[in-house]
Amino acid sequence: MNDPDLVKRAIASAVKVAVEESEAVGRLESVIRSQPFSDALALCFDCKGIIYILGMGKSGLVGQKIAATLTSAGTPSVYIHAGDALHGDLGAIRPGDVAILISKSGQTKEVVQLIGFLNDQKNPIIAITNDENSSLAKAARVALLLHVKSEACPMNLAPMTSTTAMLALGDALAAALIVAKNFRPENFARFHPGGKLGWMLTAKVSDMIDQTKNPTLKEKDTLRNAVVKLVEYRIGGVNIVDEGGRLTGLMTDGDLKRIMVDSDGETLDKPVAEYMTRNPITANIEASAAETVDLMENRKSQIYVLPVVDKDHRPVGILRLHDIIRSHM
């Protein structure tokens, strides 16, 4: 591509895709706030069987993703290619199942041919389509309209805007079901034990710290004692406890450096209670890796060293961001 004008026109076309698809997704807000979406949500929520998603071509590929998302989020769902359904796979759909049929035109032959069987078996049909007057929309119990004006494809031929809108509607339905079913991270972890995400949800703080390394001082101990502990353990912090052994504060390497810059020669002999961070943010020994990462990072200033406590608020160790990263390597 040595023609600058060609590159410019190509980039302009790519920008047009981003703009038009984002606008199409924005228009879906009115659909999601409408009664038909609430009706579709109720059908899926009340379904005692499986939600089957059927489509053809690019719409079918979107259907596969929607089915995968619903299933991983606690709503059993299976995708069937509409052509395969017409050649025997309709046998998988049982009374009590819900069918989501996807077709931009609402007239895709193979998809429309499914309607008779589904109606005979009294399977509720949810249509995702762009034409409210189409055969699919008219036959469906609920029709969710895409409101796509045109495809972002430079030729207005390849499905781009429509498939993005279909996917967004599917994700919106999945998100609504997650809330409606009170689906929790621990539930998600059961269905997704593999990979980094699975590890983040299933690993506990106890899996990431060495409980033999638990540098601890009492409030009356001196900063000099803190220096010794920091050098001895080299894990970035020292837990400070009261006479009952419960955590009251934290002294980190960074705290000590700042103190030494502003101090006089007698500072090292002063009690740590005068300089420690009181009532620091802590992680429970049984907390998940995901919860702990959120605790350390989702704040104005990132935390790199976190005291770990048991149910009685007694320190059992110190967790560093480095420990979380290393545990998953």
Automatic annotation (TrEMBL):
EC numbers: 5.3.1.13
One GO MF term attached to the UniProt entry: carbohydrate derivative binding
Keyword hit for Oxidoreductase: no
SMART domains for the chain: CBS
InterPro entries xrefs: CBS_dom, CBS_dom_sf, GutQ/KpsF_isomerases, KdsD/KpsF-type, SIS_dom, SIS_dom_sf, SIS_Kpsf
GO biological process, one term: carbohydrate metabolic process
Keywords: CBS domain, Isomerase, Repeat
Domain SIS: 41-183
Residue span(s) of domain CBS: 208-267, 276-329
Keyword Iron-sulfur: no
UniProt xrefs under Pfam families: CBS (PF00571), SIS (PF01380)
NCBIfam families named among the record's database cross-references: kpsF (TIGR00393)
Family recorded in the similarity comment: Belongs to the SIS family. GutQ/KpsF subfamily.
The protein's name in its UniProt record: D-arabinose 5-phosphate isomerase
Lineage: unclassified sequences, metagenomes, ecological metagenomes
